[in-house]
Amino acid sequence: MFNSTAPQLLTIAQQRQRKNVANLTLWTFQGWMAMLLIGAGYAKVAEPMTSLEILLGWARAEQQSLVRALGWFEIALGLTSASPLVFGNFARSALLVGAALISALATIMIVVHSLRLEPGAVAMNLALLGMAAAVLAGRRRRTG
Fold first, then answer.
1. Region at 49 (left for phi over 0; alpha for psi -120 to 50; beta for the rest)
2. How many domains does the chain contain in total?
3. Is residue 25 part of a domain?
4. Which residues span the domain enclosing 90?
5. Is 109 within the bounds of a domain?
6. Angle formed by the axes of helices 92-115 and 64-87, nearest 10°
7. Dist. CA 71–CA 79, nearest whole Å
8. Which residue, 98, 101, 143, 105, is CA-closest to 124?
């Protein structure tokens, strides 16, 4: 008789397929994080402050050096997301540290943007936090 509560055993092919899907998902998240952070960081580093003050409301209240430093930090974090492409497993530690720092930065920015009543920026940082948390959890388990 069929027991619906018994755990279903996966075949080797099904296990491999799940691992491949998980790996592809994590690589997709890493790519999105890299593009988002490098793009945002580059804008903070390269754009004139007058433009940034229009685009980023919080930049009006901050010193230019802080905005530029945050831009360089975002670029560095974006590079850690893509580092395994170049350096393979040697960059795994950098990826894990980067994902943890991205999670921390996104959490701080969620609070900042919530206090400033900027729902679009909150949503973007929630998405970034979700991707970083998934990458951190997935890559700690050595998926891919």
1. alpha
2. 1
3. no
4. 31-140
5. yes
6. 150
7. 12
8. 105
Q: 144 is written with which tokens?
A: 């891919």
d(CA 51, CA 67): 12
Q: How many CB atoms lie within 10 A of CB 102?
A: 25
Locate tokens 């790519």: which residue?
31
Do residues 80 and 136 make contact, with C-beta atoms less than 8 angstroms apart?
Answer: no
Instruction: Using alpha carbons, select from 38, 46, 138 the residue that is nearest to residue 78.
Output: 38
Confirm whether 4 is domain-assigned. Answer: no
Residue type, 78: G
**Quick one: pLDDT at residue 106?**
96
| C-beta separation of 95 from 30 below 8 A | yes
Half-sphere exposure of 79 (CA within 13 A, CB side): 9
Give the chain's residues under pLDDT 70. 1-8, 142-144
Is 128 domain-assigned? yes
pLDDT in tens, 85-109: 878 777 888 899 999 999 999 999 9
